[in-house]
From TrEMBL:
This is Uncharacterized protein, UPF0248 family. Pfam families: 2_5_RNA_ligase2, MJ1316. Residues 264-287 are annotated as: Disordered. Gene3D superfamilies: Cyclic phosphodiesterase (3.90.1140.10). It comes from Streptomyces atratus. Residues 1-65 form the MJ1316 RNA cyclic group end recognition domain. Residues 278-287 have a biased composition (Pro residues).
Amino acid sequence: MHTSDEIYHRVLWDPRFDAERFVMGIAERGAPTKRVLLGDFVPGGEIPWHRVVFFEADGQVVWDRASGIDRLDETLVGHIGPVPAPAPGDVLAVPSTNRTAVAWLPPAELWPPIQHIRREHDRQIRRWPPHVNVLFGFVPEAEFARALPLVAAALAETPPFTARLAGVHWFGHREDATVWLDPAAADHEPWARLRESLELRFPLCGSHSHGYTPHLSLGRTPDPHPLARKAEALLGPMTALVDGLVLLSRRGDEPMRVRARVLLGSGDVRHPENPALPGNPPPPPPV
């Protein structure tokens, strides 16, 4: 595997690469990984090379220290590239609401240890199932009929993939922190691709000003270190197939519920609220 400084200098000085396509991930103690344009990074400055944890090209990981991904040369033959833009009519420019989301739910067999931690530390446990948001907020539920074909088209562009849930991190807030499990420990690329495919079709949804960090929230606490240690001890590395995303919505004071499920690779739609439809996932286990 190449070192981070080798990757940096190859991109910078090899004329076959366009440095403007590349972003570097910088690890910061007690904070989310910071994304820096490769052209803005200053080698030999305050950031040592061991704190460079990944490189992305067009939003897709091409080098990752933790997982051993090292495929920079694929960018030269077109394997890495931007998500195809949708046709002009395949866009739904509707303002978002925080009462809906497009998310991945881990399989039921992974719920018990996650819920064990959330019961004690997550005030949102009765509002949200264990989940990884791909797009939040999303369009209002009243627009789901128009949104579903666009979600299906977006998800058809990414085949099912195996996610590795490993590593506990936190987002620091003014008075506390949100502790989370990393579902993209093996590869950030398919998550980023799903996010970009959806953002292109729903331009008024999600946050386009900040980098997307897939995460499964475990709880919120003033001191994240004890919760992080507890989660690391109880949650060993887990793998799960990401073969579909769900559309969630919240009606009145109800919790977030699944209104539809869309399969990756095919874009097939399932409606969990209609038990007569074949292929619907089983109901999630109780909190």
